[in-house]
Write a structure and sequence with these properties.
The protein is mainly α. It has a domain of 27 residues. The chain contains two helices and no strands. The longest helix is centred in the C-terminal third of the chain and has 13 residues.
């Protein structure tokens, strides 16, 4: 099943590409909280992706 809203070969700026890589490396505060709560409760948080 094809994924919606993804354009292959789309031109993006170097700045935007760099920022996307940074965001993938670092956890957002909500992700950190979900991970911490999951460890406490024994549940694993599901990724929205």
């Amino acid at each position: 099943m094809p994924v919606k809203n993804i354009i292959l070969g789309q031109k993006i700026s170097k700045e935007k590409l760099q920022r996307a890589k940074e965001l993938r490396r670092e956890m957002m505060p909500a992700e950190k909280t979900a991970k911490r709560v999951g460890r406490i409760t024994g549940e694993q948080a599901e990724s929205p992706f």
